[in-house]
Specification:
This protein is α/β, with parallel strands linked by helices and 459 residues long. It contains 13 helices and 19 strands. The model has no long low-confidence stretch (mean pLDDT 96).
């Protein structure tokens, strides 16, 4: 089945089996059948441990282990692996959950119900959760739907998610929410002055394109830009096979902004939203762009190509220039841009760069609140000379290999107007191994943190 069905809570008046979260320190507080069954099954309340307590007629309760207080913060979205582990039925949180814990647990449950079944049938998730009292069910369902879109797009291989298919998904998203969508394709990119998008994508069998979505008529203007490199061979600077294996996810920035846009539109936020996605495939052919080529960008800045595998920043540059021409209140880009970001913070954190101090604070707080962790890296101005090769205005791949994520972010910042409110996320977009609420595969990073932070800074 594809796309993945939208996540939904069970009816609030449904009879439900209770889920009780308990740590090792709480085992002595269990009574009756729960205490007896925990003892009989040697349930120790370790992190993620589950104990099914029988009742008079079927399942009576579920005990969910939280682990020790010393290690509890290592495990987020604690209910996120329950949907696939519990038998068919309807469940509800029971016991002492704070409002924040209940909301996170409910969202984790929805996230954990995701299954990518486009190419192989899998067992359906038949366990459903009643949304906890006081938690906005519609909001969480909208957020989960946006996350599911991001995951579906990333998980789909390039054979079915090239630039054309990404455009189809983009237009379908716009139609779903009454937004306006348009595209500039192929040689029209040259006519309308997007030369670097054209240069990167022209060697592919599918024409490069720039996708645009507009939604909302009131409120601050927010422009989201997502890197849509549907596959990256590295171009003439060809990647080794070991580095090419996950390159279907190189459009993870586009998938993330599309998922975030879906959240924003479904929630009806008072924003004037614009989404820009340069959709290309970086392929090898007789007309591939070459090392040592010098490209002239939409902004007029020249770029020396010192590595054709540093192509994401090129397509983003033209899109960011377009974004800045309308002087929005805020520009945010998402891209699976550099391996250096992974070396710096690993695969779980979404590093971001911003000159907006209020947004930086809000993102850090929001990331912790909504279990979408982010980490700020600097636009470090003393590194600016590293992206200036002398023979052109900019170098797309500075030598030396140091501070690669920072120099990439500085490169992108050159293409927004001076003083613009610009934030860049250098994400991974992939969950290497399953975790609660995050099955192995494509995953949104930073989008929910930004969604939660926006009301605090964009008014």
């Amino acid at each position: 089945m594809y796309p993945t069905p939208l996540p939904q809570f069970a009816p609030s008046d449904a009879e439900a089996c209770p889920i009780r979260a308990v740590g090792p320190e709480g085992l002595e507080g269990l009574t009756g059948a729960e205490a007896a069954w925990a003892k009989a099954t040697a349930f120790k309340a370790g992190a993620g441990e589950v104990c099914l307590v029988p009742g008079a007629e079927g399942l009576g309760a579920v005990l969910l282990g939280l682990g020790s207080t010393a290690t509890r913060d290592r495990r987020r979205l604690v209910t996120g692996d329950l949907p696939g582990r519990l038998p068919e039925g309807i469940y509800a949180l029971a016991g002492d959950w704070s409002a924040r814990e209940a909301e996170e647990a409910a969202l984790g449950w929805l996230f954990g119900s995701y299954r990518f079944t486009r190419y192989v049938e899998g067992p359906a998730v038949a366990a459903r959760l009643v949304c906890p009292e006081g938690v906005d069910a519609a909001r969480l369902e909208a957020i989960a739907a946006g996350e599911f879109l991001t995951r579906d797009l990333i998980n789909t291989p390039t054979s079915d998610m090239g630039p054309e298919a990404l455009e189809d998904a983009f237009f379908a998203l716009a139609a779903e929410h009454g937004a306006q969508a348009s595209a500039v394709r192929g040689d029209d990119l040259l006519v309308q002055n997007f030369p670097m998008i054209h240069a990167v994508g022209r060697a592919s069998a599918e024409a490069p394109r720039l996708l645009e979505l507009r939604w909302g008529e009131a409120g601050p203007a927010l422009t989201l830009v997502g890197k849509g490199v549907c596959f990256d061979t590295g171009g003439l600077d060809l990647k080794p096979a070991s580095s090419m294996g996950l390159m279907k996810k190189d459009m993870g920035g586009a998938a993330t902004v599309m998922g975030l846009a879906r959240m924003i539109m479904a929630l009806g936020l008072k924003l004037r939203l614009r989404v820009l996605v340069p959709a290309v495939e970086n392929s090898v052919s007789s007309n591939s762009f070459r090392p040592q080529d010098i490209l002239t960008s939409r902004k007029g800045l020249t770029v020396e190509i010192n590595n054709t595998d540093a192509e994401g920043r090129l397509v983003l540059a033209d899109a960011l220039t377009l974004a800045g021409e309308k002087s929005p209140d805020m520009i945010v880009s998402f891209a699976t841009l550099t391996g250096a970001a992974r070396v710096a913070v690993g695969d779980d954190l979404a590093p971001f760069f911003t000159g907006n101090e209020a947004l930086a604070t809000a993102l850090g707080e929001a990331g912790a609140e909504v279990a979408d962790p982010v980490w700020r890296l600097p636009f470090h101005a003393p590194y600016e000379p590293r992206i200036e090769p002398g023979i052109a205005d900019l170098d797309n791949a500075p030598k030396g290999g140091l501070a690669g994520s920072i120099t990439a972010a500085l490169f992108l910042r050159r293409f927004v107007p001076e003083g613009a409110d610009y934030t860049h996320f250098d994400i991974y977009g992939w969950q290497p191994s399953a975790a609660p609420g995050r099955p192995k595969g494509g995953v949104g990073m930073g989008a929910r943190a930004l969604l939660a932070a926006l009301p605090k800074v964009l008014k």
